[in-house]
Amino acid sequence: MIPGATAASFLLVVVLGAMSPGPDFVVVTRSSLAGGRRAGMAAGAGIALGVFAWVVAIALGVAAVLTASAVAFTVVKLVGAAYLVFLGVKAWLAVRRGEYRDLGPAKDTQPLKAGAAFRQGLFTNLLNPKVAVYFLALLPQFLPADGSTLQTLELAAIATAGTVLWFVTLAAVVGTLRRFFSDGRVRRGLDAVLGGVLVALGLKVAAETA
């Protein structure tokens, strides 16, 4: 078992890492704006599942193979970058079409569904090999020298809980403010900005080296 103090320290580090601006943050924010708190929380749950999958992959040695292989790392990185650009362009297309009355009385368009938001969060995280690099560097700091696979899985559960904690909180806050963002001009501006951020992040990920 992981000692309580070690588990608490790891949880704090994971939450602080999740709070840093990045693709996951943007995806949850936009999901909360497009579909409300439920969609935002679903996106956060998808991200958390991705974190769990990466830590389990580390426990099984899969992530180490990925980070050791320049070709595999580059393939996953470029696919992930393309997906971020896709989400950003999708936001820009919403700006062009003016799909903002879904938050107002008319409700002419459908809000983002929780299932779609969950998939966006999951794929955004799974297609980011930097997450594997981050946890490969982080986990040894919290495991004993003779750490077992079971202890690594304990940390995976803690990492998942910390990720859920932060992104559910973020989704709740943004979802609560959704009424303010129901104004078409405000929403148009936000989608333009968030779309630009996603495209920029995608290009940045594509240009980065392992």
TrEMBL record:
The chain crosses the membrane at residues 6-27, 39-64, 70-93, 155-177. Keywords: Cell membrane, Membrane, Transmembrane, Transmembrane helix. It is a multi-pass membrane protein. Its main location: membrane. It is found in: Cell membrane. This is LysE family translocator. It comes from Amycolatopsis nalaikhensis.
